[in-house]
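Hey, quick one: can you model this chain's 3D structure?
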Amino acid sequence: MRLLRSSTCAVRQYIFVDLDTREADVIDPVLDYKTASGTLSTIAADILLKFVKEKELNVPMDFVKSFDIFLKDEEEFSLSSNITGKVIHLPGHTPDHTGYMVGKAIFTWDSIFMPDLGSARADFPGGDAKDLFASITRLLSLPQDYQLFVGHDYPVGRQHDCMATVGVHQTKNKHGGFGTTESQFIQFREARDKVSGAPRLLQPSLQVNIRAGKLPPASNGRVWLKTPTKLTNPNIAL
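Sure thing. Here's the predicted structure for all 238 residues.
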């Protein structure tokens, strides 16, 4: 799935490589989107492709189908001829949120952030703070040396990072570490989400993600993304 993003947003993209066979999988590639000019670019994707070419990796590609298969919770799938991964259903941020476990590495996306940031919001369509707490608890119940790779990072006073171990999260995650009760998390998360403005790229992202990463149909060489507008006074439209 391709997610729209701004060129300044700290979105993590990963390339998983089987060092024995040179087979590789790209996890969560994105498009660059500038809202001010309405332009799309492939800056981030081009960096990934350059890395793939330089390292002489073999990435399975399918430009015909956006979805190849649908996977169930804990279902295994092949990442290469030698290595398998496992799906982990992690609802809360969104109802269909998933992570991928490969050995001791788990790509968690927005089910958890770096320990000093805590957790993602749970007020997106279908999101639920109780479900998010359950997903975080599931992740933090894994062995302490397992590595959680996040989908975003918004650091304050430190360098960007992408991974912390389960053990570090257990003691240092500011929202859902050990000792945090379900009621405490839900109360905090729901209160925080009520005062958080809508993400700047929420509407364009939804319109692309709901199409499985494809852009809306083009018209006269342009793609149109809708912006919902609520009228506080119906006479404005007259």
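One thing worth noting: The helical segments are 43-54, 129-140, 166-172, 182-194, 202-209.
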